[in-house]
């Protein structure tokens, strides 16, 4: 296991499967995820044809904040969804 792999595994909400998905889109560390942001990472995952639910979006945000995704404020979850939907619509 590489240092970057364990770096991501130390974050809340992220297990081995999520980390492997993040590696597939070029996210190899916390710094990469922070730079890309949860919405862009989520969209890249979806654009690769990887089937994930909106929970992945919440999990990515929670990982950056150090909180369980279920503890995110509902308004934050809604804002993330709206932003992701807006970006996806503009790509169509």
TrEMBL record:
> What's one Pfam family here?
TfoX_C
Q: Name the Gene3D superfamilies for this protein.
A: 5' to 3' exonuclease, C-terminal subdomain
The leader peptide range reads none
InterPro entries, from UniProt? TfoX-like (IPR047525), TfoX_C (IPR007077)
**Domain of life of the native organism:** Bacteria
Q: Which stretches make up the TfoX C-terminal domain? A: 6-83
Q: What is this protein called?
A: TfoX/Sxy family protein
Q: Which organism is it from?
A: Pseudomaricurvus hydrocarbonicus
